[in-house]
Design goal:
The structure holds 2 protein chains of 2 kinds.
Chain A: H1 2-24, H2 28-48, H3 52-76, H4 81-86, H5 88-110, H6 116-119, H7 130-138, H8 143-164, H9 176-181, H10 184-187, H11 194-197
Chain B: H1 2-40, H2 61-71, H3 82-98, H4 117-125, H5 128-138, H6 142-173, H7 178-184, H8 198-211, H9 223-226, H10 236-261, H11 273-278, H12 284-305, H13 311-338
Helix pairs in contact in B: 1-2, 1-10, 1-12, 2-10, 3-5, 3-10, 5-6, 6-7, 6-8, 6-13, 8-10, 8-13, 10-12
Classes of the chains: A mainly alpha, B mainly alpha.
Chain lengths: 198, 346
């Protein structure tokens, strides 16, 4: 048991520090990278809870896809920190109110303490596959919720694309269909070589 | 306590047993690449460096290259982000090596026989892009940055097609465990998944080439446009680590293709009356390595044969050709599985 606890606190410490660094570090790219580290460490903690499927999906979806796009955008941005800092006092009341509400909400739940008996993880054998278990529940009991979530996500994708897609008149576009249809005879005219001809 | 230490030592030994042949293979893949492409282009390629005064077709070349790179100076650009500049190559090679933990080399010959092996592979191969992006950004150079941006967009796009192709494998095998995926294919050459999953196999191979940033999808390097892309500022050992990661990824993708579509360590003569019995003594790892060599050869062959894609064509191929193909084939596959189509799903 001792070894497991050491590993847990090791990852927990990394997680807390990196989560703190996300909001304290100045460079936005560094902040995004600390968020990646936080996700990755969370995945490690989930692995310790024997939630392999969720842990790997977290790495695959958040670290492998979402954060890559995030970094992609953050690296392109040219952020002037001084402008952001200028509004600090103006936004302070709003920010403080939100922070107080969050603290009250969280302490309401957390200070009551956990009913540990409900959350003790059940140890399973090596043969147990929690991928299969999640699949069984997801496609039977929670099928409609699952489908609705999928449709909402699809809607968000379509909405995001339709909001940002605009055709500018001065942009030149390629028509890939025409390019694919091109044959050799359209581009090359073979001229007979006079020397070999005679 | 002693048991724990004992287990750790055994695991470490197993890791070395995988890594040492892997690194040797990486070194000699670079040699094979230069020689083979040389022959394909009617050149000779490196044939001078040998051992102890013997030339031996230039077999000493990778060793000489490694020694050279180790002793070269690591030049750090003045405006570079120092920590990230050093971390980037490590982030590139770590997933390329860690993914080998779940790769089975034979029935039971695997470091970690976990039941979500395929998912682990997908998760780790999706991490390789960080090395490229961070390298490009930390170098603080416009060529490196352009290369990183290209590579990030390309890898994220092809990962979707790759993931879908693997969903097909998972549907066919009813398992995420790589060992079970191979065992489901047993029964001889025509039982392997390359035939029922042919479009997915093609998509996987093409995305595999794109994911490793190899020709004809090597716009991330694009030496004629952006010099060398994301690693233009790297030199010495840091550059070598990127190089190792790229070749380790080639070997990994080749071996995964074999495991998922070409029957892994299963013998191609299985089920053939005389030949099957006559070759039954050959260990499975021989077949696995031979098949992997074929796909590694394909990677080199592609590089010598195809011209580089234009960037918008890469994106078009990924999003408008490969992804629709995989989605259609998943539907076909689902029907075949429900109908218990023999001999694969019977």
């Amino acid at each position: 048991m001792g070894f497991e606890k050491i590993i847990f606190y090791f990852f927990a410490a990394i997680l807390v520090v990196s989560a703190l660094r996300v909001i304290t570090v100045r460079n936005t790219v560094h902040a995004a990278l600390f968020l990646v580290l936080a996700f990755f460490t969370t995945a490690a903690l989930w692995l310790m809870l024997e939630a392999e499927f969720l842990a790997m999906t977290l790495v695959l979806v958040y670290v492998g896809a979402v954060m890559v796009l995030f970094l992609f955008v953050v690296m392109m941005l040219d952020i002037d920190v001084s402008v952001l800092r200028a509004g600090f006092t103006r936004y302070l009341p709003v920010g403080a109110t939100v922070a107080v509400v969050v603290i009250i909400e969280m302490s309401y739940f957390l200070l009551g303490g956990f009913d540990n008996s409900k959350f003790t993880p059940v140890k399973h054998g090596v043969e147990y596959s929690n991928t299969r278990a999640i699949g069984n529940v997801l496609y039977t009991d929670y099928l409609f919720v699952f489908e609705i979530a999928a449709v909402i996500l699809l809607l968000a994708i379509v909405a995001a694309i339709s909001l940002t897609l605009r055709k500018r008149k001065d942009t030149r576009y390629q028509t890939p269909g025409n390019q694919v249809k091109v044959r050799k005879s359209d581009r090359i005219r073979i001229v007979k070589d006079m020397d070999t001809e005679s | 306590m002693y048991e724990l230490a004992y287990d750790l030592i055994i695991i470490l030994l197993k890791i070395f047993a995988i890594l040492i042949p892997l690194m040797t293979a990486v070194a000699y893949l670079t040699y094979a690449e230069r020689r083979l492409i040389g022959f394909m282009q009617v050149r000779i390629g490196p044939n001078r460096v040998g051992f102890f005064g013997f030339r031996m077709f230039g077999l000493g070349q990778p060793i000489a290259d490694a020694v050279k790179l180790m002793f070269k100076e690591i030049v750090m650009p003045a405006e570079a982000n120092r920590y990230l500049f050093v971390i980037a190559p490590i982030l590139a090679i770590a997933p390329a090596l860690a993914a080998w933990a779940v790769v089975p080399f034979g029935d039971g010959l695997v470091l970690a026989d976990i039941n979500a092996g395929l998912l682990y592979i997908l998760a780790l191969t999706s991490l390789g892009v960080y090395g490229v992006i961070i390298a490009g950004w930390a170098s603080n150079s416009k060529y490196a940055f352009l290369g990183a941006m290209r590579s990030a967009a390309q890898i994220v796009s092809y990962e979707i097609a790759m993931g879908f192709a693997l969903v097909g494998v998972l549907m066919a095998a009813h398992s995420l465990n790589l060992r079970e995926i191979v065992l489901q294919q047993s029964g001889g050459f025509w039982h392997w998944y390359w035939l029922p999953l042919l479009p997915l196999f093609m998509v996987y191979l093409i995305s595999g080439v794109a994911e490793t940033n190899r020709a004809p999808f090597d716009v991330a390097e694009g030496e004629s446009e952006i010099v060398a892309g994301f690693h233009v500022e790297y030199s010495g050992m840091l550059f070598a680590v990127f190089f190792l990661a790229e070749y380790a990824n080639i070997i990994l993708i080749s071996m995964l293709t074999v495991l998922m579509f070409w029957g892994g360590w299963l013998s191609p003569f299985e089920g053939i009356p005389l030949l099957g019995a006559a070759t039954a003594w050959i260990p499975g790892i021989f077949w696995l390595v031979m098949k992997t060599f074929f796909f590694m050869f394909c990677f080199l062959w592609f590089r010598a044969t195809f011209p580089r894609y234009r960037y918008d064509q890469i994106m078009r191929l990924g999003w408008k050709v490969l992804i629709p193909v995989t989605i259609v084939w998943l539907v076909v596959l689902a029907v075949a599985i429900v109908a218990k189509l023999p001999p694969w799903f019977g």
